[in-house]
Design a protein that fits this description.
- By secondary structure, the chain is of the alpha+beta class.
- 21% of the residues lie in helices and 30% in strands.
- The chain has a 6-stranded antiparallel β-sheet with strand order 1-6-2-3-4-5.
- Strand 3 and strand 4 form a beta hairpin.
- The protein is globular and about 35 Å long.
- The chain starts with 5 loop residues before the first helix and ends in a 5-residue tail after the last strand.
- The relative contact order is 0.22.
Length: 117
């Protein structure tokens, strides 16, 4: 009877691992990315991470553009493997290359809270 969306999944992982402080994500519609251009997800990620252009590593965040803005996020396991919240209320592993939903989208963006060597 309970579930979680993609950004709250990442939020809980990082908070529970004590990587970021507790913070509130304002309520939003599950379809918000389909109907607006405001980049709320990217703005939120940039509070605690930075965009990277190198290959993602385990624990990095990948963001996909669905609709008008970047509206779906996932944790990188080992690229192209990800774990993400896939409503209704389930978290699951996916391979971005093998999943045709992801392979049809524009190239994803990556963010990291980890220092790079």
């Amino acid at each position: 009877g309970a579930g979680i969306d993609c950004i709250r999944f990442i939020q809980r992982c990082f908070i529970d691992a004590k990587l970021v402080p507790e913070f509130v994500i304002p309520p939003h519609s599950p379809q918000w990315a389909l109907h607006q251009r405001s980049e709320l997800l990217i703005e939120g990620l940039l509070r605690y991470s930075r965009e990277i252009t190198t290959s993602p590593r385990p624990g990095d965040v990948v963001v996909f553009k669905f609709g008008l803005c970047w509206g779906h996020s996932a944790l990188v396991v080992e690229w192209p493997g990800i774990i993400h919240a896939n409503p209704p209320g389930a978290c699951r592993y996916d391979d971005v290359v093998k999943n045709s939903t992801f392979s049809r989208l524009m190239p994803p963006r990556f963010f990291s809270i980890w220092p790079r060597n």
